[in-house]
Amino acid sequence: MIRTGRGISTIYYPSGFNGGRDPDLVSLRIKPDGTIDVSNASCEMGQGLKNVVVQITAERLEIEPGQINFDNTNSDTAAFSMDTAGTRSTVIVGNAILAAADDLIGKLKTFVGEKLGVPAAEMSYEKGRTFITTQPEKGMTLAEIGAASNYGGVFLMGTGGYLPEPAPPRDPETGATLPSKIMAYGSCVADVEVDDETGVVRVINLYNCYDMGTVINPLQAEAQADGGNIQGIGMALFEDLAPRFPERMEPYADSFTDYIIPTFMDMPQHSATSFYENYDPNGPYGAKGCGEMVVDTQSPAIVNAIYDAVGVVVDSLPATPEKVLRLIKEKKSK
Amino acid sequence: MFNAIGKPIPRYDGLGHVTGRTIYVSDVTMPGTLTCKVLRCPYYRARIVSLDVTQAKRMPGVYGVITREDVPYNRFAMVPDNHVLAEEITRYRGQPVAAVAAVSKEAALDALAKIKVEYEELEPVFDPEKAMEPDAPQIRPEGNVHLFDGTSPVRRVRRGDIEKGFAEADVIVEGRYTTPCEEHAPLECCSTLAYVDESGKLVLYSKTQGVYFVMGDLANVFQLPMNKLKFIGNTIGGSFGSGNSVATDHIAGLLALKTGKPVRYTLTRAEEMMFTTISTPWIFKIKDGVRRDGKITARHVEVIHDCGAFTELGLYAAEKNANLVAGANLIENLAVDTHMVFTNKLPSGSRRGFGVNVGQFAEQVQLDRDARAVGISPMAIRFINAFHEDDISHVGNRLRAVSTIETLQGVADLAGISLEEQYRTMSSKEVEK
Description:
By secondary structure, chain A is an alpha+beta fold.
């Protein structure tokens, strides 16, 4: 018969490389029409980096996202990026953008100030316009600066970098070190149905609440959480290249016939995600990063829900029907 | 408060992705491109007695055949102990032995069939616990067990007094947890289009997820300065960590340098699954001392990380895991003992929260066992042990912007769970007296 169960998990996840020391650089250039080129060699692999870059840049320069172009296309032109991994890009590229934007704004003030015969310290920047602080009507827009600088033979480029605090040498006895200054948090509730005659587990509901700090783009954060749910269900119930390991490595999966990842049939009937935006002063605008955290909560919550349903602990992932059924039989025979 | 932050702006590249306009590395074509195919060792562990590519080189349509003799520097990866092309001893099934660039896939496969390799099959070891035994086949000259800091087979975390903590406990709860070999499963398989441009620069259209993460490594393999090496890409069809390990860039680049022609090396789905880095298995043995009120007074975690045949990202994963495996709980008396072991399977790559998600599976299932042992709810034990603001982490640094309690409250709200008063009103900012 079908038995239902509910399980909980709570996890935390560091942003950036373990131990820091993973910098990124960003450059911001102004085109003749005043639009902005952002350059950084991070990879877009579906996670939504490009929107994060555009939105953080737009926020700092107080301009519309549509005025920004992102170039990560090749290593001859794009600024250095340590890697695109470790839940690092939002925080590290984001902080590098803020540094580059501040540098650009300083250069805009100098450029416009020289045109108007006023020291940079007496200039202000607001919403794409650089002007004399005491005479706001005297100034230049980004479009005017773009034309005047490029056609005037002046290269206005803002550059910036960010280096996460490097960990001290790890103490060999206590292990004391610094994994990351930024930690994101998440908790999950999973509801499952377990068929105690076949061992088949279905995830019915998945609820997650994440603190990834300030959410840069809620559409993307929710989509990433949905993707995380799919991968988390895969890790919990299906994914195993060598199911007979450790006895032997064969059979070994070589196609999606044998290596099962979830499809739409395996999606929960109901899933919901909420965000607790705990502002982190070390992240850009309080963001903490979200990439890997959202694949972590599901497998323990689902395995705990299986226990709640049928009273067995699946301590070896994945919780395949064979394993669940064997555990149920062992429990009955005791 | 914000102008652009927090706004649900549609994806920068979303329309291109869903209408098929996005150009991925696998889509790029170039006139006169050769196809690369790789000969792989069929054994989990073997000695290469002889390797003869003479006949393969003479096959029609073949422009280049390479073995380790043709590689300027044959070691690569984050910890550079992996072999671009196999040396005398192979350590996993599918390890690349030789590579061919030819005018077509068929010509390349025909040439592979003409490569003569004599292997002496050696006894492999797969189970990391067996690999740690003294009489196990030694798969690396340095031994099967990694020495942390060059000296210690154990990577330690120590906090408080674990014996005192266990003495304070009312019950001792033990569990053993394992995770399997897992695949990244990106939509786009690993792929490289390599060519030498008009200035003599090697250009790689690459599916890497970190152009600069692998650039130094590959510059070393090719023995080229970085101004003679260019990566194009950075919009790829999924990676999930697979793109931190080099699977095609090195071989395609070597063949482009050798032949002077563009070379395409794209893995089939079967090759992607069978012959690229994976999440290798982990074993966690957790022993907790728990007080009647649900407080964990002591925890000992023994970790065994099966790193596979070469280090790749396995050492990084073991270090990160050790820092975080005790979970988002304040445990005053803690010991973590991590071992990393080499076996004859694919190297440990980065994958979807690697090192961390496996430990959190073990820790969170153990926490439910703890709760049952003292008769409290799974929700209660998480609130009772949660980190608070300014608590010191397991490895000695102060935690800021802590949200275990608040995310538990948030998810309870989503799931319609009514929390007991003391948990509903609890805050990470306030520590109970």
